[in-house]
Design brief:
- The complex is a heterodimer of chains A (about 150) and B (about 400).
- Chain A has about 150 residues and is an alpha+beta fold.
- Chain A has one domain: Sufe protein. Chain: A (Alpha-Beta Complex).
- Chain A is built from five helices and four strands; from the N terminus they run H-H-E-E-E-H-H-H-E.
- In chain A, helix 2 crosses helix 3.
- The radius of gyration of chain A is 14 Å and the shape is globular.
- Chain B has two domains: about 140 residues, Aspartate Aminotransferase, domain 1; about 260 residues, Aspartate Aminotransferase, domain 2 (3-Layer(aba) Sandwich).
- Chain B contains 14 helices and 19 strands.
- The chains are: A alpha+beta (about 150), B alpha/beta (about 400).
Chain lengths: ~150, ~400
């Protein structure tokens, strides 16, 4: 296995793919958004219960490649308790990581996705869950699609 | 067919390392590699004869016109057309189907039925959805049978669906997702019996074996050059002469007009009628060279070679844990399509690429069928005349590694 590939499929990613966190529908959700990636058929629904302006509970559901599902799983563990503005800040940091491969020192688990930058076709997989959660927080009624948004 | 090692020497792109391993190119249903003869034909045109066709009287223009019309005649012979005028050059299968679908839509009305099948590539489905929307005709689909679509088209359902209301029956000759090869001659005959015009998507078959439009009896046939050793950007719409001459042109402009006035114009007959603007001259010349190449290699032999590799791959893949193989259990076209319960096709393709093996993962432009089969995507290996048994073995070994990597086996 080459360096690039070991970087792409980090242990953290394989673990989240095999044992996804916060998976399934959230019956108490106050916001729901669905994301899809038409080019590969990956899907991700994100369910959020807000308490004031903070995420009290979150879950996701979907089907797709290891990168998309692990990223959505990890995302749910990172955004709980955060406000929409804070989540956007995290997404921006994550986006920087997957597009450049550079991870700031203070970012921990999300840095596992740094290897994605060597596989440009997979960036959309990694950002799918994030698009969905941002849409849920914005209250967008339309599905998030990786085709109409900048990565 | 010449020996595979001999054939492989003709294809420059095959001789390269990918991720430190020799390339095993198994994505031929998407596009095939090009032999030196095709590349040389295209370069030769641009280096010597490059000029616009038809309207010129100078030496280069006459040479270019001769080469372009010669290519049309070459392609006509390759598919058994009665007349070179029955060959319209397009950008590819998609444009060919759109051209005929738009033209036929103008002849349809509410109450008419357009019949297609559940195994159509988007390019032979969406244009018919548009034609139905535009004309008020109804689009109906012949179902695919079996949990893994192993039963092919439902022949009994087809019998019920084929009523005199059916004006068009559009179907694929070879499925790019399942490996099914439909009995095109029989299906065309059944459609003809109710007076329907037949449109055959032959993208996966024209370059993969013997092919004769008159024996098949299709009124229209669409295919692409790049899936048969030719260049991208060139394809064909074959149509029976009297139908092509009646079909309303989809695009208008230079080259297709018989008499142009300020407010009204009259069109030329086929094929010019359907070729507005400067055509892809070099592409047509490249496609003709591909026809020469495939004929010399032996079309029956190519079909047998592809089918044998697909059989070998199918039987070996069937032994992998948790695999689901799509399409016919018996004879099939030169591809296999499969899904693992716990590993997504895109992860499979990324990891196989690490071993130098080019596969394709996704819905293969067949989303409604995938949904029906309960799949988001499959991995596909598709073979051509230059592929080897060793490449099949490498693929299977690579897939075993993929399964181990994800802890499945």
């Amino acid at each position: 296995m080459s360096g690039d590939l070991t970087e792409l499929y980090q242990q953290v990613i394989l673990d989240h793919n095999k044992r996804p966190r916060n998976r399934g529908r959230l019956p108490t959700a106050t916001r729901v958004a669905h994301g899809d990636n038409p080019t590969c058929g990956d899907q991700c629904s994100v369910y959020v219960r807000l308490d004031g302006d903070r995420i009290a509970e979150i879950s996701f559901d979907g089907a797709g490649c290891a990168i998309s599902q692990a990223s959505a799983s990890l995302m749910t563990t990172q955004v709980k308790g955060k406000t929409a503005t804070e989540v956007k800040g995290l997404y921006d940091a994550f986006h920087h990581i997957v597009t450049t491969g550079e991870a700031p020192a203070e970012i921990s688990d999300l840095a596992a996705f740094a290897g994605v930058h060597a596989f440009p076709a997979r960036i959309k997989c990694a950002t799918l869950g994030w698009h969905a959660v941002l849409n849920a927080l914005n209250g967008d009624a339309v599905p998030a699609t990786t085709e109409t948004r900048a990565d | 067919m010449p020996s595979v090692p001999d054939l492989r020497r003709d294809f420059p792109a095959l001789h390269q390392q990918v991720n430190g391993r020799p390339l095993a190119y198994l994505d031929n249903a998407a596009t095939t590699q090009k032999p030196r003869a095709v590349i040389d034909a295209i370069v030769g045109f641009y280096e010597r004869d490059n000029s616009n066709v038809h309207r010129g009287l100078h030496a280069l223009s006459m040479r270019a016109t001769r080469a372009y019309e010669g290519a049309r005649e070459r392609v006509a012979r390759f598919i058994g057309a009665a007349d070179a005028a029955e060959v319209v050059f397009t950008r590819g299968t998609t444009e060919s189907v759109n051209l005929v679908a738009r033209g036929l839509a103008a002849t349809l009305k509410p109450g008419d039925v357009i019949l297609a099948t559940e195994m159509e590539h988007h390019s032979n489905l969406l244009p018919w959805q548009q034609a139905a929307r535009r004309s008020g005709a109804e689009l109906r689909l012949v179902p695919v049978t079996g949990a893994d679509a192993e039963g092919g088209l439902d022949s009994a359902a087809l019998a019920t669906l084929l009523t005199p209301a059916v004006k068009v029956f559009a179907f694929t000759h070879g499925s790019n997702t399942l490996g099914t090869v439909n009995p095109a001659a029989e299906l065309c005959a059944r459609a003809r019996a109710v007076g329907a015009v037949t449109v055959l998507d032959a993208a996966q078959t024209v370059g993969h074996g013997a092919f004769d439009v008159r024996q098949l009896g299709a009124d229209f046939t669409a295919f692409s050059g790049h899936k048969m050793c030719g260049p991208t950007g060139i394809g064909v719409l074959y149509g029976r002469r009297e139908l092509l001459d009646r079909l309303e042109p989809d695009e208008t402009g230079g080259g297709m007009v018989a008499q142009a006035g300020f407010t009204e114009s009259r069109w030329k007959p086929a094929p010019e009628r359907h070729e507005a603007g400067t055509p892809h001259v070099a592409g047509a010349i490249g496609l003709a060279a591909a026809c020469d190449y495939l004929e010399a290699a032996g079309r029956e032999a190519i079909a047998a070679h592809d089918a044998a590799l697909a059989r070998l791959a199918f039987d070996q893949l069937a032994q992998l844990p948790g695999i689901r193989l799509l399409g016919p259990r018996g004879p099939r076209g030169g591809l296999v399509s499969f899904a693992f319960a716990d590993v997504h096709a895109h992860d499979v393709v990324t990891l196989a690429d690490e071993d130098g093996i080019a596969l394709r993962g996704g819905h293969h432009c067949n989303q409604p069928l995938m949904r029906k089969l309960g799949l988001a995507s499959t991995t596909r290996a598709s073979f051509y005349l230059y592929n080897t048994e060793e490449e099949v073995a490498r693929m299977v070994a690579s897939l075993r590694r993929v399964l181990r990597f994800f802890g499945v086996a």
